[in-house]
């Protein structure tokens, strides 16, 4: 009789441990999927260094062109005064 109670207790404890481990494993899989989706979302929102450099170079080129136009304008104004 004592062995039967011991077997029931061990079975119940091992069953509960198995259930908890399965639940934790499922939760871990769910979290891994969410982390992977988050990584994909983050990659969509940020630009690469190459993209930033290209955009900055375009802006600097336009500023240089504007500076040249302003210089030409002032030269024309100066020559018109003389």
What kind of assembly state do the chains in view correspond to? single chain
User: What is the mean pLDDT?
Assistant: 91
Separation, N- and C-terminal Cα atoms: 121 Å
Question: Count of helical segments?
Answer: 2
Can you offer a commentary on this structure?
The protein has 82 residues and is mainly alpha-helical. The chain has 2 domains: 1-33; 47-82. 94% of the residues lie in helices and 0% in strands. The protein contains 2 helices and no strands. It has helices at residues 2-45, 49-81. The longest helix is centred in the N-terminal third of the chain and has 44 residues, at 2-45.
Summarize this structure briefly.
This protein is an all-alpha fold. The chain is 94% helix and 0% strand. It has 2 domains: 1-33; 47-82.
Task: Outline the fold blueprint.
Layout: H1 2-45, H2 49-81
